[in-house]
């Protein structure tokens, strides 16, 4: 079963306080064009960062690698993991079929994903995002990809009940420019994008960012390219013993945010819920439990 290992950028973030000024310059360049920036030659990378090649080697060793080639091997592994097709994802898992029931094996992986995701999450950023989502003065737009559409739907359905001014972007990317017309500096765009990252979502994020929109990204441990323009990013672990990734760790964050936003504006959301329930009763949309 694949081991949860730290990505190069996580090592950089963990070791930031221990880096010299030159090494921090180098780290900044690596993170600005991650992971491709680290795959260029050592001389080009050093020149781009304005440091010496020995500085590149020292920082690689400080991050726990044998040298710069070892660091680049780790980056190549990350790139390969990002673009895995469903069949190759499943082939990468080696499990003892007789160890326990498949449900328990899968659950153990998901629990580990949630635990590691929570260990890495920035709680201050979580609070900031919750405050942004609770601000009804900001129009909230939500969109997901082919696999993450269900996560986006879940967030949209609950936010729409809790607060006004919430829009779910249509399934077709062809109509997204019509939504962009109404987006401005007061708007918030929440995007879900995990590997294999979707180019049309990246373009949407780029245009929205250029219009001053606050972009909030939910992505996997490797990080969607949208992270380059996102203002705030949640990374969740998604690998599972399946041909498809598991978004349960990201869904945990989503549900926690929903609870926090509802709590922050309870009186207003309570009124909306009561009004909604009255509509359900009058239309007899749902069967009464009694």
Mean pLDDT: 88
- State the separation between the terminal residues, measured CA to CA: 49 Å
What structural class is derived from the secondary structure elements? alpha/beta
Element string (H = helix, E = strand):
HHHHHHHHEHEHEHEEHH
Description:
This is MurR/RpiR family transcriptional regulator. InterPro entries: Homeodomain-like_sf, HTH_RpiR, RpiR-like, RpiR-like_SIS, SIS_dom, SIS_dom_sf, WH-like_DNA-bd_sf. Pfam families: HTH_6, SIS. With 290 residues, the protein is α/β, with parallel strands linked by helices. The protein has 2 domains: 1-83, Arc Repressor Mutant, subunit A (Orthogonal Bundle); 116-281, Glucose-6-phosphate isomerase like protein, domain 1 (Rossmann fold). It has 13 helices and 5 strands. The chain has helices at residues 8-15, 21-32, 42-49, 53-62, 68-82, 86-91, 102-120, 123-134, 149-162, 176-180, 199-210, 248-264, 266-283; strands at 140-143, 166-168, 188-192, 214-220, 232-236. A 5-stranded parallel beta sheet has the order 2-1-3-4-5, with helices on both faces. Strand 3 (188-192), helix 11 and strand 4 (214-220) form a beta-alpha-beta unit. The longest helix has 19 residues, at 102-120. The mean pLDDT is 88.
């Amino acid at each position: 079963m694949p081991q949860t290992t730290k990505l190069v950028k996580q090592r950089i973030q963990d070791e930031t306080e221990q880096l010299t000024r030159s090494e921090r310059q180098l780290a900044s360049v690596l993170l600005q064009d991650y992971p491709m920036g680290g795959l260029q030659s050592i001389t080009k990378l050093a020149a781009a960062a304005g440091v010496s090649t020995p500085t590149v080697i020292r920082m690689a060793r400080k991050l726990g690698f044998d040298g710069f080639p070892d660091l680049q091997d780790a980056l190549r592994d990350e790139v390969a993991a990002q673009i895995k097709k469903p069949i190759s994802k499943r082939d990468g898992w080696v499990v003892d079929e007789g160890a326990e029931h498949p449900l328990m094996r899968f659950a153990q992986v998901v629990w580990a994903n949630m635990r590691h995701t929570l260990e890495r999450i920035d709680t201050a950023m979580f609070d900031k995002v919750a405050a942004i989502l609770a601000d009804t003065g900001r129009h909230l737009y939500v969109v997901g990809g082919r696999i993450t559409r269900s996560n986006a739907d879940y967030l949209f359905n609950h936010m729409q009940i809790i607060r006004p001014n919430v829009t779910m972007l249509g399934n077709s990317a062809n109509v997204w420019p019509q939504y962009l017309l109404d987006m401005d500096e007061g708007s918030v765009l929440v995007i879900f994008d995990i590997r294999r990252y979707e180019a049309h979502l990246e373009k949407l994020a780029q245009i929205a960012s250029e219009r001053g929109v606050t972009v909030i990204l939910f992505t996997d441990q490797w990080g969607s390219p949208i992270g380059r323009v996102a203002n705030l990013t949640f990374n969740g672990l998604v690998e599972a013993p399946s041909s498809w990734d598991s978004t349960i760790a990201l869904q945990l964050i989503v549900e926690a945010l929903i609870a926090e936003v509802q709590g922050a504006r309870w009186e207003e959301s309570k009124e909306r819920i009561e009004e909604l329930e009255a509509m359900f009763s009058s239309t007899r949309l749902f069967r009464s439990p009694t």
